[in-house]
Each structure stands twice: as C-alpha cells, then as structure tokens.
Design the sequence.
C-alpha cells in the first residue's frame, strides 16, 4: 500500500510540476526553447519532486541541484528541453522514432544526474539511469504521437501541448513506480 501511495504522490507531483512550469516557459519548437527555459522548467519540476523525496533521501536538495544541472546539460547539448519542445515533423513514424531516441538520450542524461543525487541513499541508484532512459523514451514517443494526432484532428496547437502533457504523465507514472522500488 505504501508503494502505491508513494507512486501516486510522485506521479501527481511530477505532473503538477510540469503544469506549474508552463507558467514560466512556453511550449514551442526546438529552436525557440533555450537553456534558461529548460533550466527553469526542470527546476520547477525538481522542487515539487524534492518535496515527495524529502523522507526517502538524505538530502532532497541534491535532487533539485542535479535536476537543474541535468536540464542545463541536456538543453545546451543540442537535444533541447525535451519535455517542453514540439517536433516539427508531421510524419507519425518519424515522430515516434525521433521521440524515442531523443527521449532515451535525455532520460539517460537526467538519470545520470539524478544518480549522483541518490547514490548515497541506495545501492540500487544505478538502476535509476535505466529507468529514466526507458521512461523518457516511451513518454516522448507516445506523447509526440498523441500531440501530432490531436493537432491534426483539431488544427489547434493545443493538441501538441496535450501531447507534452501525455509525455509527462507517462514519464511520471513509469518513474514513480520504479522510484519506490529503488528508494525504499
């Protein structure tokens, strides 16, 4: 029961963090979102996640710092702020493949950054790198496909924003399920 409770808290916190980040940054195409926007968005999400992690880690503020560093490196490394960018291609198969690839790379980077924050708390911390990579690969692939389909169906950019919300929901669920197992 405690695992379900933690997973739900994590999922809700991560998703709400994404929604709150939208108050500071704007969803856009890759060239329009810079390092500062990626860092701000990641910081908002990390602050909310740290609140959930405060009882499971020695120093939840390290999570915030590592998240900030991770998003800065990912965004400045040319991948972009994956959780806040919309792909320009209108070909569904390319969106799914591109989303899975960039999601896996971004997830690996975030997983590595977070590993640095939790490695003292658990011997399973290395698994977070894999969990993050797989979660972001699935999340970005699914979310970008949903965004494209909703955009084509409604002819509104809001469909793309809904796709990013799906991305964050998938990522938050998958990481939430595994965060309890890794950090218990």
Sequence:
């Amino acid at each position: 029961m405690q695992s379900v409770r933690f997973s739900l808290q994590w999922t809700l916190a991560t998703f709400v963090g994404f929604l709150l980040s939208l108050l500071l940054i704007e969803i856009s195409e890759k060239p329009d979102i810079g390092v500062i926007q990626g860092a701000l968005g990641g910081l908002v999400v990390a602050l909310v996640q740290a609140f959930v992690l405060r009882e499971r880690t020695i120093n939840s503020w390290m999570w915030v710092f590592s998240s900030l560093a991770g998003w800065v490196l990912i965004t400045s490394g040319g991948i972009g702020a994956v959780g806040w960018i919309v792909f320009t291609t209108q070909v569904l198969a390319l969106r799914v493949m591109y989303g899975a690839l960039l999601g896996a790379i971004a997830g690996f980077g975030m997983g590595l950054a977070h590993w640095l924050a939790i490695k003292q708390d658990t011997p399973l911390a290395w698994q977070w790198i894999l969990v993050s990579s797989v979660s972001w690969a699935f999340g970005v692939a699914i979310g970008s496909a949903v965004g494209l389909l909703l955009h084509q169906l409604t002819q509104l950019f809001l469909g793309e924003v809904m796709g990013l919300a799906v991305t964050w929901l998938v990522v938050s669920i998958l990481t939430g399920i595994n965060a309890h197992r890794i950090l218990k």
Remarks:
- Residues 2-183 form one domain.
